[in-house]
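Exercise: predict the fold of this chain.
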Amino acid sequence: MAISTESGNVWPRRKHASSFVIPSPVDHPKSRTAEESTREASRQGAKSAAVAFVVSSVPTLVAVRKIPWAKANLNHTGQALIICAATIATYFISADKAILQSARKNARYDGRD
């Protein structure tokens, strides 16, 4: 059950004889633009999420200490859910708006393609 010398020599030639080359998508300028817009959208979403965290946590924590209904019904988990829901929603909405704005800007025909 050994490989004969004739069939053993076919594999190395076939492995390197391919002339079909596919260019890397990283080399394409539009992929770099997409990568940059994604990075910028993530950065913008993080900034908006930080603001939303402060804006939602301060009233929530004050309400739990001052309002009797909130003091009786909102435990630590409820407070965290309120704050996290606002923060996460703001992140995704802001990032999505930035990506759509970048897509609109890059979708215009510039005559170079």
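Check your answer against the key: The chain has a mean pLDDT of 81.
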